[in-house]
Amino acid sequence: MYENIDKTKYTPMMQQYLTIKEDYRDSIVFFRLGDFYEMFFSDALLASRELEIALTARDAGAEDKVPMCGVPHHSSQSYIEKLIEKGYKVAICDQVEDASVAKGLVKRDVVRLITPGTIMESGSLNESTNNFIAAISKTDEYQIVYTDLSTGECFATSIPLQNQILMNELLSIGAKEIIIDSDFQIDGLENFINSYDIVVSHMDDTELMSYLNNHVDEFYRKTFARLTNYILSTQKRKLMHIQEVEVYTASSCLKIDAFSMKNLELTETIRSGSRKGSLLWYLDKCQTAMGSRYLRKSIEKPLVSNIDIEKRYDLVDDFKNNFFIKEEIKEYLRSVYDLERIVGRISYGNANARDFVQLRTSLGNLPSMKLTLSKLTSNIAIELAEKIELHSDLFNLLQNSLVDNPPIGIKDGAMIKQGYNTELDEIKNASTSGKEWLLELEKRERERTGIKKLKVGYNRVFGYYIEITKGQLNLINEDFGYERKQTLSNSERYISPELKEKEALILGSEEKSIKLEYELFTEIREKSKEYIGSLQKLARVISELDLLQSFSTVAEENRLIRPILTDQKEVNIIDGRHPVVEKVLNNEKYVENDCYMSEETTVLLITGPNMSGKSTYMRQLATIVIMAQIGSFVPAKSAILPIFDKIFTRIGAADDLVSGQSTFMVEMLEVNYALQNATERSLILFDEIGRGTATYDGMALAQGIIEYIHEYTKCKSLFSTHYHELTQLENHLGTLKNIHVSAKEEKGEIVFFHKIKKGAVDKSYGINVAKLARLPKVLINRSSQILKELEKNRKDDLNLFNFEDVEVVEDPIIDEIRNINVNELSPIEALNTLYTIVEKVK
Prior knowledge:
- The chain is an alpha/beta fold.
- Helix content is 42%, strand content 18%.
- It contains 27 helices and 27 strands.
């Protein structure tokens, strides 16, 4: 639209707008006019619809009026937040010179571009969740560097050039916005990006700013530069709080893909997407927002280092054995505010006095917290206590300079304490004595005039005045020297020479006071920037401490025990429980179950009726493993566990990342992803694989998958099925064991025991479950007859699969394509080769 506009037809102001808009065509421009932000042309049409505000028109010099809408400057933040939530970018265009000294048109420019990945305002951010923006580069692999601008945390990783792995990683990160170069091909990713409302932005500049040189190693340098240059271009300021890039690989944490994270309900429930009912909800007894975010990150990327995990266990144990010390630490943590995001706002230059009061309160708790923590004996407690830097100088600065309850705005005064600055005290004293004089004037004028209801008041429009009600106007005479200033319905307002003189003195003092307070506050804010790095280190210590007291609190409340980690591949859980299911059962007793897999056992084949608890049992094992590897105690009587490197699940229906794929196709894609990426140290949970196709196809696939795990993957796997024929595999595959969920039939009704037992069952009780669902009786009876007929003709013999006997036959066309050297072909040769191949496959 904007390319076709002839700017010369419009007024100078509208020409200024159109010039600015040319550089921000993918954004909604908030153009400052007086006390409003105005939007014009297509921006106005879009914003009026999305914000549900009135659409008007403005005469801008051309023949037709220009579409326009606007929002008040003072309340613009809520409107901006709504647009950001809907995935739009908002360019804030402000006046960049004083209107009173401007010659002609006031200069305006975009001072900040707000996007879903760069929003900083606390009201727009979830305090327990990071807000990540990621840059992606494509070489012989995908490089991803991402940061949370509000906290300064920065991470990097690299993954194979596979779209499914890239989508999984972006989902795991929870990126709100991705930055790519203009040559990046997003073919195959469009549906994924649209489905998850990820904003795509572009940045080609990969020259890193010199002050960020030490933040990243050479390998990720260009991708980090792409990310930071985009942020610099949108935020128009230095990124002093961006931390050194923390690199992780697939082997540096327990890898859980996005599907598995969702299937296991680690951070939100499948059904409602709510936090309540997830493992995060169960474990979060953190007292700080930083602790809650750190817990989420820990769940998403559990540890794989035995040493690091055991250190966490030690402090959880220490807290359990020292209840009163833990409760004291919790009390101190409750008074610690979100240091990471406060530091982000300090660096950003938009921290207000209330942020600094919160920082002061947080720092004030540190001496007592450090002293209390040092009473514990575990090595990690001693380490954390030593790492708590008190920041006494900063605390004293804030303690001496700021009042306890300052206003939100930093240009309203009332922030700086008396005694901090002599000049400010003198100005405030002059203003205070002036106000005392006004009270004395009111008393004196009442006595002089005999008007008992005379008042001395003030408003911003008319200044100070003497107000007299209409019922007493007859008492005024010319000798009083009053000059009428304003007429109201019930009174008249006057000014006197004496009051006019004092008004100038008082208002002058207040103006000077506010200006000086602002200058002093900005000095304090600049001084505080010297502590950004050390405050970020302090925030990490507080997060770790809060995380581990939370684990200890949960362990005490829910009978959790310290697991034993082993270098062997044995899994031995006695009386295990699914923590979240047990929690939401309230007064119902949870049925505890063992899970034993010897060093040699790779597959537990689970049979049992629908609704008996097979899926819960599978999720229970994965949840216990994850809890153990984040340093939490686990819900069991005892637990011996190896350290796993990856978890893969296929439980229930899953979202389709690639549009148009059937549920069964998505199931096969996920199975393939697991089998291709699992190692002998991985955990696989497959729930009723093959049910989405014909019975024999499904059973054949299920058996093939089990045998493939047995023969090649050789990792710990739980496989539930209703194909009872598969239970015979125990006789032929030495690493497979049958288990089942017990139930029995009484008088035609099914009774679930939810108890895992050794061996297999040969009945699914599907018709009994249908009875519970109250299907029509005639349907139930007919189904029972059909079942008896089918069972008469059932063949129980299994044809065991031998991979060595299978000949893999490839199409010769594939060999031909494989032998083509694309780099040696000219464009015309490439077309001819493609034509030849197409003809062969017709």
